[in-house]
Design brief:
The complex is a heterodimer. By secondary structure, chain A is an alpha/beta fold. Chain A is built from eleven helices and 21 strands. In chain A, strands 1, 4, 5, 7, 8, 10, 12, 14, 16, 18 and 20 form an eleven-stranded mixed sheet that branches. In chain A, strands 3-2-6-9-11-13-15-17-19-21 form a ten-stranded mixed sheet, covered by helices on one side. Chain A is globular. In chain B, about 40% of the residues lie in helices and about 30% in strands. In chain B, strand 11 and strand 12 form a beta hairpin. In chain B, the strands form three sheets. Chain B has a six-stranded mixed sheet with strand order 6-9-10-3-11-12, with helices on both faces. Chain B has a four-stranded antiparallel sheet with strand order 2-1-4-5, covered by helices on one side. Chain B has a two-stranded antiparallel sheet with strand order 7-8. Chain B has nine helices and twelve strands. In chain B, about 45% of the residues are buried. Chain B is α/β, with parallel strands linked by helices. Classes of the chains: A alpha/beta, B alpha/beta. The interface between A and B is medium-sized, with 26 and 37 residues.
């Protein structure tokens, strides 16, 4: 029930505030209370809300989700998950168990004076001034109920801070492991990433569930990039039919910084990716890429907004999707070019292939331009596989199913090939190939 | 040895008759040329033989190596050795020619009960066949036909033909859009693939190609029928006189 769920959240917040009283800096407490007020005035969005027009959040009331904290879990199952880390040897591994940073399982291979990778909970205590300066400054809880909900309870997650000029060669992996054994939990990780001048990181996020119950993970990641910082950010969403993710990432970019996000969604009952970049100085570059390959009743909503607030910045956005069975995808991309943002270059494109009559795509590319000297384009396409291409392959003796797999793989590979971490790229290629049950297509790619 | 036998083949597109009773036999070791004015049904014949499905066969029979060809899906025809060099080869972004050919070759081998080709052998084979049509090997790692010139696309068709070693190759206006140098390369590639076991059906509008690929037989297709057959001299005659005398001959015979 909607009301019960709402009451549960509010009761939990009162209890949480009491429990954490005095533990966090005063400013955080004010922010939480503001978020609480926002959440109560906003309520959960309905389809009447333009930003949620195609996205039904009623799953929230249907699954009996519980906000209570989780019991300890057996390490064996976690060890099994960690065995499947994509590049286990070299990477910096951040393990978040039910949203909490695990010191035992995380593995950080960097020098602490150059880059700090750790728990946000610790940072809230030991780096209070930095946290006060950046926490909840970018992800807006005043008009987004899920950001408000996360901010109310935000107490742990991954905290990354790089010093000036530090180039982190080994990628950082954030592994979310949630337990859903006795009841359906709500997990709310909160990440904060601050990149110093000219520093560079690559980071990818993967998601795992232990147990049969449903999971609702409501993540907020805030990124602050100083001058000339460079960040490649990947999310690999490969979850079960009982998992619900709302993932908000808000990036704030300073002069000549370069942010690339590549979100690959291959499976999961519900994924809402709310992704924003605010280009707050000249010469910034923002690349947002996404590939979704959905089947069954999967749902993915890629919802992005790029704010060109200053002149001479470039943004490029390309999302490609393959939608099969009864799956649904939503693309909503907004580009705002502010009045001062002359010489902006912004491209946005969303391309879809529908494989079944019951598959749905709602695509809404949007451009709002208030400057007069800009180069912008946007567009969306939706269709079936090209019949001439298919026939060409058949006429060379390739079976119908293999021909389709080749063409779809080629369609998806434009995004997958943009992954610059070789091990991660191979991992994603393998996941895509498995979908076709035509694995040799992937392998002969390596000629 | 008989490769292909077409008997009284009649084909409609959207209820409109395009082929009105074609008879043609191609034996191993033979090169046949089909010439004819625009709209005479040349490309339709090539498409029907390769297995396109948007045509309706209303009458007749096509036998390939003793089997009923019209009952076979396009991919099986290819695996059994029929190859169509397209008039307009399509571009396939994201699929490399190497990957495409390896998949096609292995599908054929599987059909014939053979093991997949060894990776090193495959690379060697590609190198050899690419040299035949003077294709550089970096071409093979680019997406199929993407951004290729007209001549490069046609050379790629002949390269694929060389890779798949067909029993019956159908060249659908392979000369169209080629300059004389590209034409020589393509024709030279085809000539080197020719042997006593395979057959070629060369469809062309102009006699020019037949200077380089010398046919054993020339047929003139007009209004969906083969109205005249002869040897290569017929091609010269057509080049000299155009198609009008054929048209006149047909109408006076009616």
């Amino acid at each position: 029930m909607k009301e019960d769920f709402f009451n549960q959240i509010n009761d939990s917040f009162v209890e949480f505030s009491k429990r954490t009283n005095g533990k966090f800096p005063a400013k955080l407490k004010t922010i939480r209370n503001n978020a609480f007020n926002s959440f109560n005035s906003l309520g959960f969005p309905t389809k009447k809300n333009e930003e949620w027009k195609y996205t039904d959040t009623s799953f929230l009331y249907k699954q009996d989700f519980q906000l209570q904290s989780q019991k300890e879990i057996e390490n064996k199952e976690i060890t099994d998950i960690l065995k499947f880390l994509i590049n286990g040897k070299k990477d910096n591994i951040v393990v978040l168990i039910n949203g909490r940073f695990s010191k035992e399982l995380s593995r950080i291979n960097t020098e602490a004076e150059k880059i700090k990778i750790g728990s946000l909970a610790d940072a809230m205590v030991y780096k209070a001034s930095t946290i006060e300066k950046h926490f909840a400054q970018y992800a807006n809880y005043e008009n987004d109920a899920f950001v408000a909900l996360n901010t109310m309870f935000a107490s742990d997650g991954c905290y990354i801070r790089t010093a000036e000029g530090v180039i982190v060669e080994n990628p950082i992996q954030i592994v979310y492991i949630n337990t859903a054994i006795d009841y359906a939990p709500i997990i709310q990780p909160r990440n904060l990433i601050i990149l110093g001048d000219c520093s560079q990181i690559k980071l990818y996020e993967t998601y795992h569930t232990i147990g049969e119950q449903a999971v609702f993970q409501n993540t907020v990641t805030e990124v602050f990039m100083k001058r000339f910082a460079n960040f490649e950010h990947y999310k690999i969403q490969f979850n079960n039919e009982n998992s619900y993710y709302i993932d908000t990432t808000q990036v704030h970019q300073k002069r000549a910084s370069n942010y690339t996000n590549n979100t690959i969604s291959l499976k999961g009952a519900f994924h809402r990716n709310t992704l924003g970049a605010y280009l707050d100085d000249e010469l910034c570059q923002t690349n947002l890429y996404g590939m979704y390959f959905l089947g069954d009743k999967d749902f993915v909503d890629n919802h992005s907004r790029i704010d060109h607030a200053k002149p001479n910045c470039t943004s490029s956005e390309l999302y490609k999707g393959i939608i099969d069975d009864e799956a649904t995808a939503v693309f909503n991309g907004k580009i705002y070019v502010w009045k001062d943002a002359q010489q902006t270059t912004a491209y946005q494109s969303n391309k879809n292939i529908l494989l079944s009559n019951d598959a749905t795509i709602n695509s809404k590319p949007q451009l709002e331009i208030f400057a007069d000297d800009v180069k912008c384009s946007h567009g969306a396409t939706c269709g079936n596989l090209d019949k001439e291409q298919l026939y060409y392959l058949l006429s060379r003796g390739i079976s119908d199913s293999k021909a389709k797999a080749l063409l779809l793989n080629a369609f998806a590979s434009e995004i997958v090939e943009k992954i610059s971490i070789a091990e991660l790229r191979d991992y994603v290629k393998r996941l895509v190939a498995e979908r076709f049950a035509e694995e040799d297509i992937y392998f002969c790619d390596n000629l | 040895m008989e490769l292909l036998k077409i008997e009284n083949l009649k084909v409609n597109i959207n209820d409109k008759p395009i082929l009105n009773g074609i008879n043609l036999q191609i034996n191993a070791g033979e090169v046949h040329a089909i010439m004819g004015p625009n709209g005479s049904g040349k490309s339709t014949l090539a498409s029907v033989l390769s297995g396109r499905t948007e045509f309706e066969v209303t009458d007749g029979k096509v036998t390939y190596l003793g089997k009923n060809l019209l009952e076979m899906p396009a991919e099986d025809r290819a695996r059994e050795g029929i190859f169509l060099a397209f008039q307009y080869p399509v571009e396939i972004p994201g699929v490399s020619t190497a990957n495409f050919m390896k998949t096609a070759l292995n599908e054929k081998r599987k059909h014939l009960g053979l093991e997949p080709v060894d990776a090193m052998d495959f690379l060697q084979l590609m190198k050899e066949k690419a040299a035949l049509v003077e294709i550089k090997s970096d071409f093979l790692h680019r997406s199929v036909n993407e951004g290729f010139s007209g001549g490069e696309k046609k050379r790629n068709e002949v390269f694929q033909m060389a890779m798949l070693e067909p029993r019956l190759a159908i060249l659908d206006e392979t000369d169209s859009g080629l300059d004389i140098d590209a034409l020589k390369i393509v024709a030279n590639g085809v000539n080197r693939l020719q042997n006593k076991d395979n057959g070629f059906l060369v469809i062309t509008h102009y006699q020019r190609l037949l200077d380089y690929i010398v046919p054993d037989f020339v047929h003139v297709l007009y209004q969906g029928r083969i109205v005249k057959s002869g040897n290569k001299e017929l091609a010269f005659e057509l080049e000299e006189k155009g198609y009008d005398w054929i048209k006149k001959e047909v109408s006076s015979n009616k």
